[in-house]
Amino acid sequence: MQTLQKLSKRLYYLPSYQKTDRPILAAIVGNDQTLFIDAGNSSSHARLFKEQLASQQVFGDIVAITHWHWDHVFGLSEMDMPSIANSMTFDNIKVLQKYSWENQALDERVQKGIEIPFCADAIKLELGRNREVNLPDPTIIFDKQLKLNLGGVTCMIEHVGGDHSPDSNILYIPEEKALFLGDCLYANMYAEKWHYTIENMSMLLEKIESYDANFYFLSHHAAPLTKDEFSSFAFLLKTSALLTKKHKGKREAIAVDISKEFGLELTDDVAEVIGYFVNGYV
Ligand SMILES: [Zn+2]
């Protein structure tokens, strides 16, 4: 079971859980309002978060959704509070509302290429036998940016897109120097081959680097990245993008250059990032 972490009196988070693909959930505690970031991948996930916060006397008022993927929205009704989403996320939630989550329906969507096995498997595992998912409409809909004043602490929500999901938002808490990236830096998984594109990644990193942060939350990482850890990750992404362009998507040449020119050891993580760029190179 995940245990609530307190980063400061204004910032709590529940770590991710790989087995059923639970993302990080966070609470930003203002003097007047408390903002939750993401609704969780099930009612029980949302309930776990709310219960652990309640034991700290923290209660949510409003929840912001990073993007439409199931693992970030299935806990919405359990959250039982107004929600914020951009219009693309809203539209995608309207599509999800029509789906059945029973095995047969899930397997059919996987067959048709609408759903991917990775998510279908995690959904079956997380929801168990109870496949009723009540997905309410988001309450507050924005397009590009939205700023929240929670009392003594603020939050800037910006729609940034990217390969993982075109509706991705990032959330910045300037007073805490915390940046919530959702899944935006992960690969596009709803494709024949999981991939990154050079254009989207360059655009995304430029936006992210315009924020000054000390904590970078990637929803499925175990813990937030420090400034140095994030810099190393961003360097790997930029270098891989650059070399993919230079070598026209030739994996071996990229791998050789990344060690020789940039001194990066070819670990599994590095090879995975290169692989995603190679897959996305056209
Ligand atoms: Zn996602």
UniProtKB/TrEMBL annotation:
Residues 23-220 form the Metallo-beta-lactamase domain. Keywords: Hydrolase. PANTHER family: ACYL-COENZYME A THIOESTERASE MBLAC2, METALLO-BETA-LACTAMASE DOMAIN-CONTAINING. It comes from the Bacteria. InterPro entries: Metallo-B-lactamas, NDM-1-like, RibonucZ/Hydroxyglut_hydro. This is MBL fold metallo-hydrolase. It holds the Pfam family Lactamase_B. GO terms for molecular function: hydrolase activity. It comes from Oceanobacillus halophilus. Gene3D superfamilies: Ribonuclease Z/Hydroxyacylglutathione hydrolase-like.
